[in-house]
Amino acid sequence: MERFYTDILQNELLTQRQMLFVSGPRQVGKTTLAKAIVEQQHGQYYNWDNRQHRQWILQSVSNTTDAELLNQIGVHELREQRALVAFDELHKYKDWKNYLKGLFDLYEQQLAVLATGSARMDIFRKGGDSLMGRYFHYRMHPLSLREISAPHTAGQLLQDLQRPDSSALEQLRNFGGFPEPFLKADTRFYNRWQQLRQQQLIFEDIRDTNTVQDIAHLDVLATLLREQSGQVVRYSTLANQINVSVDTIRRWITLLESFYYAFRVTPWFQNLASALRKEPKIYLWDWSQVKDTGARHENLIASHLLKAVHWWTDHGLGDYQLHYLRTKDQKEVDFLVSRNNQPWLLVEVKSSPSQPINKNLHWFQEQLGAEHALQVVMDMPYVEADCFAAGKPVKVPVETFLMRLV
């Protein structure tokens, strides 16, 4: 299955001077993406986990003219366009940023660089960002309803109206959006895949690249977060459950975020004197792990919204952020999407069309001046209508809503 990222990132590599960094969860499809782009552009692919590739990379650090890797890439050859090289999981090399900085500074005119990784690749070095101005960062997400069902129009904020694939939403609910279990749609395979992925993430990826003294306790925290999807994070409660300090819980959740296991959604409090300001809500990148049906539905919508705000921001369409709304007197709406630091979209998630519109949608829209306020209903059939044309809160079928996103 070709992802919509492929053509767009390939065009970026051809037209922009900057390197491209693509990060995202383990097994979301980054390696397949890199290999597809390399194949189409007749480039070279190197994986840090491959011993021979790792040797070539390390040899090229000190030898910038005769290194085997640079000869394979062809940076010293006369070409019609820049040579392309893709580095997979290079972030596992402790000096990866300086390595790429050196390549870019020496061969900016001859070399297009794509680097992928299953941990965050947008973190600054202490003392400043040595890669400032040298890269664009894209975050790769699991499959979404739109990506499965219809083509993506680049440079367009909201996608055109299109009917979704008839079975896609149910498949996404049951098997999540990671390509392999989604495409197989087999419960036994899914169960085995999930167990193995969790072990590899915690006991290999995180353990091998970070100093965590008790990795088993971190695994327990990951399980607790799975049970608390959509809930406000209580650091002290989690600390008592695992018998570690609050600071340790904060650090471990940040670590799980950096490896794309979970993400926090912070409260919006600008122009709301009574709004909560500190406690975030937690969601999983793989919503299929959430057992409670209502919480899973909310997590699925959260993940689709996060994919949209990341793509819109990474693609240069503005600065978009995902928040939630809650006041001290218990007024609440599930999600707020801000555009350039202004409220733009309010989203409330409900299961049944018989449930009335959340009155807080009206209240928050009046208070904040958000352009759109939608109550997304999970068990409501698709309607071929533009939900973003309504100026006031309206019930929207989930498929109608999700098909307008990426």
From TrEMBL:
InterPro entries: AAA_14, DUF4143, P-loop_NTPase
AAA domain ranges (all copies): 17-148
Name of a matching Pfam family: AAA_14
Record-annotated DUF4143 domain positions: 204-352
Transmembrane segment boundaries: none
Matching PANTHER family: AAA+ ATPASE DOMAIN-CONTAINING PROTEIN, CONSERVED PROTEIN
Name assigned to this protein: AAA family ATPase
